[in-house]
Fold this protein.
Amino acid sequence: MYLLKPIFKIETPSFIRDSIKPLHWWMSLNLEDAYFHVPIPPNYRKYLRFAF
């Protein structure tokens, strides 16, 4: 059993700044609690650690 690692690109702050247009909607995403959505079997949780 293993987790598949998705590949995605996080844009740079300068790219985001340059792409902002008038009347655009933006959002913020807090990844600090994202790990709650990853199913970890109970017997492996003792090996799992996060540091912020």
